[in-house]
Amino acid sequence: FLAMTWTGSPIGEATLYIDGVNVGNVAYNAQTTPCSTFFVGSGPFGGLNFADGQIDEVRIFNYVKTAADVYSDYNSRVTSRQQTGKQVTAPQPAITRGTNGPHMLFHLDADSGSPGGIEDASGNGNHGTKFGGVTAGSGILNGGLFFNGLNGYITAVPTSVVKGTFTVAAWVKPLQTDSGVIIGTRNTGFN
User: Fold this and answer.
1) What is the three-class DSSP state of 15?
2) Beta carbons of 139 and 54 less than 8 angstroms apart
3) Measured between alpha carbons, how far is 131 from 65 in angstroms, rounded to an integer?
4) Which residues, at least 6 apart from 148, have a Cβ–Cβ distance to it below 8 Å?
5) What is the number of other CB atoms lying within 10 angstroms of the CB of residue 167?
6) Strand ranges (DSSP E) for the chain?
7) 185 and 44 in contact (C-beta within 8 Å)?
8) Any idea what the Cα angle at residue 108 is, between residues 104 and 112, rounded to 5°?
9) What is the pLDDT along the chain (191 residues), one digit of tens a residue?
10) ω into residue 10 within 30 of 0, thus cis?
11) Which neighbouring-strand residues pair with 121?
12) Residue closest to 127 by CA, chosen among 141, 110, 151, 139
């Protein structure tokens, strides 16, 4: 389980969590232009650093989760899986829609959608499209997605603004230690 929080704009701090534990912070320059496209499994334009392995439960929030919240997200899914076996329903965080307050912007749901599409389970309509080597596979909870490391990725055009302060989290099972980009973005006008 990986999570990253970003605080501040335009200069702030990124914090990385692995399995719910803070493993480091780094100063960074925040994105100041709202992203126009999310990429799951590759960098911008679906052509850079393809992910190689399984990705599940990708979530993007428009606020910084606390260390306790990140650990709780990790622990609740691990506990659910251990208690009931692999095929369980993920505990869903409270989702606030249609407001400017803190809420989930995107939730990749590999268990729904058409063969070429991915459903955004956040209710915000940020549905995605699969390209290349993305296939159904196992996940931490129910199904997940397998990315082939060569040309597989998903794009989603956000209906909500992601900039400055936010949290990204995902379950990841890479096939190798350098397994590409999990979440990438592209800003309007970026080439």
Assistant:
1) strand
2) yes
3) 31
4) 50, 52, 132, 133, 134, 135
5) 25
6) 2-7, 11-18, 21-29, 35-40, 52-61, 104-109, 117-120, 128-131, 134-138, 143-148, 153-156, 166-174, 183-187
7) yes
8) 125
9) 899 888 876 678 889 999 999 999 988 765 556 667 778 888 776 567 898 999 888 888 888 999 999 999 888 876 655 554 444 344 444 444 444 567 888 888 676 655 556 888 888 888 888 889 999 887 776 778 899 999 999 888 675 666 667 888 988 888 877 767 877 776 543 32
10) yes
11) none
12) 110
At residue 66, φ and ψ (nearest 5 deg) are -75, 165
Token code pair at residue 127: 């549905």
Q: How far is CA 151 from CA 97, 133, 134, in A?
A: 33, 6, 8
Of the candidates 164, 169, 172, 179, the one whose C-alpha atom is nearest the C-alpha of residue 66 is 169
Cα separation, 158 vs 153, in Å, equals 16
Pair 168, 23: CB distance under 8 Å: no
